[in-house]
Amino acid sequence: MFKNFVESIATNLTKRVDDLVNKVADLKASIEFSQNDIDNHKTQINLLDTNLQSVTEEISKLQTIGAKQLEKTIYFENQSRRNNVRIEGHCRGVRRKLGKYRR
Q1: Mean per-residue pLDDT for 75-103?
Q2: What is the pLDDT of residue 3?
Q3: pTM of the full structure
Q4: Tally of CA atoms within 13 A in the half-sphere of 35 that contains its CB
Q5: Is the dihedral of CA 88, 94, 98, 100 positive or negative?
Q6: How does pLDDT run across 61-81, given as a tens digit for each residue?
Q7: How far apart are CA 11 and CA 44, in angstroms?
Q8: Is the predicted pLDDT of residue 60 greater than 90, yes or no?
Q9: CA distance 50 to 68
Q10: CA distance 54 to 66
Q11: Is 22 in a helix, a strand, or coil?
């Protein structure tokens, strides 16, 4: 009877240990799968980070070019205004008549 009791305890322990071994193996496989996913995501994040840096550099270059073009436009507008000086009381007809004498 004691022998049967010991054998049943040993059998139960063996089953429990086997179940634990199977669960640990499943957890290990799950962790390895998760680790592979994490590594893939790290690679993708690094790629996206590199792309983000290049896009940021391109945007800053374009902002610099845009600022330079704006400065040029303002300069040309100011030059254009300076060249279009109008004198009050000056008639276009008088200008045409004076043009005849200049020739």
Answers
A1: 65
A2: 81
A3: 0.49
A4: 6
A5: positive
A6: 999 999 999 999 999 888 887
A7: 49
A8: yes
A9: 27
A10: 18
A11: helix
